[in-house]
């Protein structure tokens, strides 16, 4: 994540840089922390899962999570109780956020746009609920360059994945096209199965 603040806005579409050029992260924990820690006010998280990001949020944040899998809500509440914080857990989907226009100061999504039914609509909703100047932060795994073995594997996995995870989505392009004012996007990778590397995008965008 170093250099996000100094990198010029924008992101070059087209094939990601060669394998050696992107940092390989042992995990996304440090990136999540760096992106989420500065957020304040009312913060919406889409697809929070079991609440794995909750410990990164500042104590004063009013957290509203939209997790469609109700089976995960107890885990979110348990994690919140462990951290001694209040949470507002809702069953909604990213495509239909039950919040007024401009009702949030920030929004967070990590490893979720691979799972939503409609990426374009989800990003439009995130943008709608942000106040002008509000920030959307993201960490997402994305498609590898076309023609690579990793991309072929992603295409197969996307058809088979029991949880519906579509790992071959061009999510970076979707974020760029979603109408945000200033997108700061970096590429990275994580070690994947069989020596592959899973391409990641991480960064922030402003409404
Ligand atoms: C791979 S998990 C990621 C969980 C967590 N954000 C993380 O970083 O580990 C994807 C999450 O997205 C949720 N999800 C699936 N479809 C969704 C939708 N349409 N809107 C919001 N969340 C969704 C799933 O229930 C699941 O909790």
UniProtKB/TrEMBL annotation:
Residues 44-138 form the Methyltransferase type domain. GO terms for molecular function: S-adenosylmethionine-dependent methyltransferase activity. CDD domains: AdoMet_MTases. Keywords: Methyltransferase, Transferase. GO terms for biological process: methylation. InterPro entries: Methyltransf_11, SAM-dependent_MTases_sf, Thiol_S-MT. SUPFAM superfamilies: S-adenosyl-L-methionine-dependent methyltransferases. It holds the Pfam family Methyltransf_11. Transmembrane segments: none annotated. This is Methyltransferase domain-containing protein. It comes from Georgenia subflava.
